[in-house]
Amino acid sequence: MTKSSSNVMALAPPAPNKRETVCIFGTGDFGRALAHKLLQCGYPVVFGSRGSQQPSSVVPKDAEVLSHAEAAQKAAIIIIAIQRQHYNFLTSLAEVLRGKVLVDVSNNLKINQYPESNAEYLAQLVPGARVVKAFNTVSAWALQSGTLDASRQVFVCGDDTEAKKMVMDLVRALGLTPLDQGSLLAAQEIENYPLQLFPMWRFPVFLSLGLTMFFFIYSVALTVIHPYVYQKKDFSFFIAITIPNQVCPVMALTLLGLVYLPGILAAILQLCRGTKYRRFPDWLDKWMLCRKQLGLVALAFASVHVLYTLVMPIRSFVNWRTSNRIVSQALNNKTEPLDNTRAWISDSYLALGILGFFFFALLGITSLPSVSNSVNWREFRFVQSKLGYLTLVLCTAHTLVYGGKWFLVPSSYKWYLPPIYMLSLIVPCAVLVVKFVLVFPCLDKPLTQIRQGWERNPQHSK
Amino acid sequence: MTKSSSNVMALAPPAPNKRETVCIFGTGDFGRALAHKLLQCGYPVVFGSRGSQQPSSVVPKDAEVLSHAEAAQKAAIIIIAIQRQHYNFLTSLAEVLRGKVLVDVSNNLKINQYPESNAEYLAQLVPGARVVKAFNTVSAWALQSGTLDASRQVFVCGDDTEAKKMVMDLVRALGLTPLDQGSLLAAQEIENYPLQLFPMWRFPVFLSLGLTMFFFIYSVALTVIHPYVYQKKDFSFFIAITIPNQVCPVMALTLLGLVYLPGILAAILQLCRGTKYRRFPDWLDKWMLCRKQLGLVALAFASVHVLYTLVMPIRSFVNWRTSNRIVSQALNNKTEPLDNTRAWISDSYLALGILGFFFFALLGITSLPSVSNSVNWREFRFVQSKLGYLTLVLCTAHTLVYGGKWFLVPSSYKWYLPPIYMLSLIVPCAVLVVKFVLVFPCLDKPLTQIRQGWERNPQHSK
Amino acid sequence: MTKSSSNVMALAPPAPNKRETVCIFGTGDFGRALAHKLLQCGYPVVFGSRGSQQPSSVVPKDAEVLSHAEAAQKAAIIIIAIQRQHYNFLTSLAEVLRGKVLVDVSNNLKINQYPESNAEYLAQLVPGARVVKAFNTVSAWALQSGTLDASRQVFVCGDDTEAKKMVMDLVRALGLTPLDQGSLLAAQEIENYPLQLFPMWRFPVFLSLGLTMFFFIYSVALTVIHPYVYQKKDFSFFIAITIPNQVCPVMALTLLGLVYLPGILAAILQLCRGTKYRRFPDWLDKWMLCRKQLGLVALAFASVHVLYTLVMPIRSFVNWRTSNRIVSQALNNKTEPLDNTRAWISDSYLALGILGFFFFALLGITSLPSVSNSVNWREFRFVQSKLGYLTLVLCTAHTLVYGGKWFLVPSSYKWYLPPIYMLSLIVPCAVLVVKFVLVFPCLDKPLTQIRQGWERNPQHSK
Lengths: 462, 462, 462
Fold this sequence. Notes:
The structure is a homotrimer.
Chain A: E1 22-25, H1 29-40, E2 45-49, E3 64-67, H2 68-73, E4 77-80, H3 94-97, E5 101-104, H4 118-125, E6 130-133, H5 140-145, E7 153-158, H6 161-173, E8 177-180, H7 187-192, H8 202-231, H9 244-273, H10 282-289, H11 291-310, H12 316-331, H13 340-366, H14 369-373, H15 377-403, H16 420-424, H17 426-439, H18 441-451
Parallel strand pairs in A: 1-2, 1-4, 2-3, 4-5, 5-6, 7-8
Antiparallel strand pairs in A: 6-7
Helix pairs in contact in A: 8-9, 9-11, 9-15, 9-17, 11-13, 13-15
């Protein structure tokens, strides 16, 4: 549905009045790019310009260039492709612009740069016109090159339904998807939208970078530096796979714990306060809002951990170690009997890890926008809370079974420091223990009541 | 696009009349949560209540509390946040509510609890009002905590376009996404929607749980109990990985066969009946409708099978077995020559499995809502039928090549029972054979004609 | 939200006038299928037919059959389920059809078969009617069987807002999702839509098939035929895994390079021309438009490469080779010392490959429609350009480290031909070198200016 039906134009008889003339104020980059695209789709374009002669050299050759007033009279839709600080001159055109559809395409340089949105400012300047906000999420470069994968969506808002409809039809004709965002009040948001750069991801990404750095250095110290200092062995190549494969699972488990920790804290807070109608502290609010992102970063670490683990038998070092072990067995003329306990432990933690990762990946798939949009609230809660805790339990058990046997062995505490996987167990174990306590009826019942609106001291909310 | 533009309110001059007062009838949990959210977004809120004094203690302190009639007069939009069984008193307010927009937010406890939807019932009670159904898919807890990942979508329906538009603008102002569902006739469906818990997944999940149970016990009997009884060997740790890795591929292949079986049955039925205009039996209809879910469960089993297979070289048991084999070779002073046939078989079934899984995963990706929405019917058919059968052929061949050499070896039939992978071949082989027969022109031609509307005995449809 | 609320009909009192009669012209396959579905959803259906008696034998028994004029009078919505070449007779019904909503459901056999769309042609034939295009993306078979996964979406367009709204409500009542595509000008596109079969995928798929063929034969020659000719060794089973696992990474890397090559060429072209307002050559335009598809094909090859690599330790041939190596070590009574350089190289290229694949998969996930719709242009650019080049660098480094040591060894050039992985490095290395040059300020600054609309010789664009 992307190609414009401009080829219709060549043959259909009433072509001239099929596509209405569009007027563009401003011959800057975006104005010209939009004009190119409009001409390509069969719309006559007229530019409004201060001096009617000078800018004609840069506008597309099929477009007319007139003075602002003349150009505005030729079209029902006028696209204001100039910067907000130059809007003032429009007040002098108020008479000509009466009843016209003014499309504000402007963007700012900073989020919430002005008290009111550019579109609302424009509506105040030219009260007789019907202002519609649109096209600001589309880049000139994308319009020009046709590579519109990202921003095929054009948010449209405006107070006049008819004007909005005209603009939405224009958007569709250019092969884009208009999204009605309601009245002009939404303009502020629409103007802020293209300025964002993953605002929800900032905290999870920086947190995990910091933690990764810490765990990496910790792991290098214990795995590379310690044997070098005490045994003069050079394991520097561990930095490529062995150490990342220690850090990744630790990060995955810790972050997964941090996804469920704020829910636990919120429950405790609500139990203490006896009401759900008091706001949480700001940091808890923010933490709760980026749980999805934290979980996805954790899933990324888990995926890398899986890959690092599965390439192990291909590694030159592992092959060398295996060969040496077998050769020395052969030279000693003995075959080992099967150690049933070891087989149990090895298979158990692998199986737990696989199942944990499987459910983790399932959670990840459910958080894809199109999937989470197609489930209702009850189903989403079921997946995220039931499946989420199952994942946490499986992954914690995976780590416990993997490292459990070394908990009480003093030699695993090099430099009196616990191995790295023990650190990763702190958060998830704490979460699971508190969650287990909260499931008891004596705590679960009041909590459920509070979440249904019951208040211990109703007068407090006054 | 999620943050509400409440910060606009602080500065824009005509703020007071920018956001219109919203009236809420009912001070229950949902009413209060909605009031909180509305106040947060800059809407003045007035509660309508039976006694105007009593409930003021629990409502947000910025909201006014008045009698029902007084409150209704203050606002154009009245949100009816009370339960259906208490709607009756609204008839006495008919005069005040004339022309007002009544928003029904109610939900029921059971699917299709009442003959008509709550919103239609409300419209019958207060004929002069303009009833709109909305907000019922949003939970109070989600509104309160801002964690609206799942149900950002608000289904809206109503007979009055203007009223619907007002409610949709309100929905957008709260940072939610309104979805126009047409006239009030859609209310029944919208009210049923939040009560569902994966209705399409129930049969596939229970079927696969039952089958998994059966195959698990079957596999334990042959792989653990049989060697214990006859050879006194304890392979109990096989329960962790070896047996799941036998059950998972068997389940995946069987379920994949069950995805394509109903299509085959439908074709046979249509050929016998000579028309496509007679309904299929109910069970076949239901089966056909949950094919996608069956396929996704099969893909889940296949994914777990892949992971279980890839960890094999890391397993302690496998390492022990390999070491022993090599050590005994070394002790016997001989090296084996390369067995070309074995290498061919091993590489073939691995390659077939990898390609089968790859196409299976591709099918899974195509069934993501956003992907399947962006392909047309012709493309969807191409992927699901051509690629689907290719997957089935590859996975069946993978199993046949894997186990083929043991088909005629009596020792593989322990307790006279066939190994588990042979069972998994029954359904897919049956499907492929019948499909192969149906491809012959003498059957394919009449079937195509029937599917294009041709009938063998037209009078039957009368 | 898929079940129709037909069960409401049984109980709600004012049922008769709740669902309005729908008239269908044409008793062909689609007409009958639609009638079935409409009746199922509680709509009375009346067929308009040439002879009012004859076709009654094939239409559903609950539907009435009348002459065209009589049938049209009974309903506000008339569905024109006949082929375009038979539209002519409608001109004689112009009087009866005045003000009626005519729904054009027709499709053509070829893209752009007629100069104007069928719906526009219909609107010209019956100027008094309100023509709406709809339902053409839904297949009769899908309507009948209820398996509507693919095409739940119904594109609707029309010049009359009220008529469009009525049709959209009808669409919703049938459990489908209407998508407003604007005015009747969009009909051409909507009619072309269901005729497409992955138009954007054709070039990437054929290109990769051709390249795969070439690399496969090249690899068979060097890996199977060469040792057979010179050493009489039969490695024919390499065709199953070893050779695909050489071809897949080579294809992945080459295609990934081809994704970024057109961007580089476009930049050079813009620098030479000194303007962004001149169109690129057609081949470059087309190439740029299918970069996403090229990238996804590359990702598919990379995924298969990962699976092929990870099954290596399970392969019978690899086990045999390992055993033999260890046994001969044991027989020679010696254990090898750890080769630190080899360990470094092996771990490095594995780690680079894992990270490269991880970022590649991330790019793939971001290109899912629902994910790319939820990011803005700035975020999309960040991911696709920054993350994309990171992936290219990692994957190129992976190949370089893997094969680097053999670059200067003459024995790796069998038949004077370079090993296959060297061929795969040509495109990505060329891209990275040119990109590195373009990053220098002396080239980056003018390029940025040009992309912001600056022109070196403005008069050229006249």
